[in-house]
Amino acid sequence: METLKTSDLHFLENNVRSHPEEQIEALEESIKEFGFINPIVVDENNKVLVGNGRVEAAINVGMETVPAIRVTDLTEDQKRAYIIIENKLIEAGGWNYELLNSEIEAIGLDMTRFGFDKFSGMEIVEGDEIQKTFKNTNQELDFELFDDDNFEFTCENCGFRFNG
Questions:
Q1: pLDDT tens figures, 111-132
Q2: How far apart are CA 46 and CA 84, in angstroms?
Q3: Are residues 80 and 103 in the same domain?
């Protein structure tokens, strides 16, 4: 593990992972509350392989150094694969939303600062049609929930709306 100057780090030119402003803001809040705990991964040229969003947040809060793990034994193809695999593996996990709600309620911190609201899984709004809004569930849809021919679905992340 090393401590590297943020000014010496290089972001990926073709970063396949996007970092929306809300995520960077949540990362900034996390750094302010807990510090920069999770090290980034860099190559021999100080290119950030994993942790680009965290570095951006660190710079935004005025950090001049961050902890890093340096890897020097990967080929260019292995680096490219590692970047994609690390990001994909994070998505592969899921949440127990009932337990998550309990944990969020029990924690004495404002978890909305870190991008968390209560997770109800979905909201059903009564009206002329049933509206289902899934909130960051990162889970497959159970199409049996959509037994009505007339419904509307809105993705909370991107706002895309579609119906049956």
A1: 888 887 644 443 333 444 444 4
A2: 18
A3: no
Of 27-31, 101-105, 116-120, 133-137, the one with minimum mean pLDDT is 133-137
What angle is formed at CA 71 by the lines to CA 65 and CA 73, rounded to 5 degrees?
160
Q: Kindly state whether residues 158 and 138 are assigned to the same domain.
A: yes
Using CB atoms within 10 A of its CB, is residue 113 exposed (0-12), middle (13-18) or buried (19+)? middle
Pair 85, 110 in one domain: no
Task: Provide the sign of the torsion angle of the four alpha carbons 17, 18, 23, 24, taken in this order.
Answer: positive
Residues 83 and 10 in one domain: yes
- Residues 15 and 22: their CA atoms lie apart, in Å, by 18
**Where are the alpha helices (H) located in 93-161, listed in sequence order?**
97-106
Spell out the long-range contacts of 138-142 with Cβ–Cβ below 8 A and sequence spacing 24 or more: 138/91, 138/94, 138/95, 139/94, 139/95
Residues 6+ apart with CB under 8 A from 20: none
pLDDT at 13: 86
Q: Which of 77, 92, 107 is the last residue of a domain?
A: 92
Domain end, chosen from 29, 58, 92, is at 92
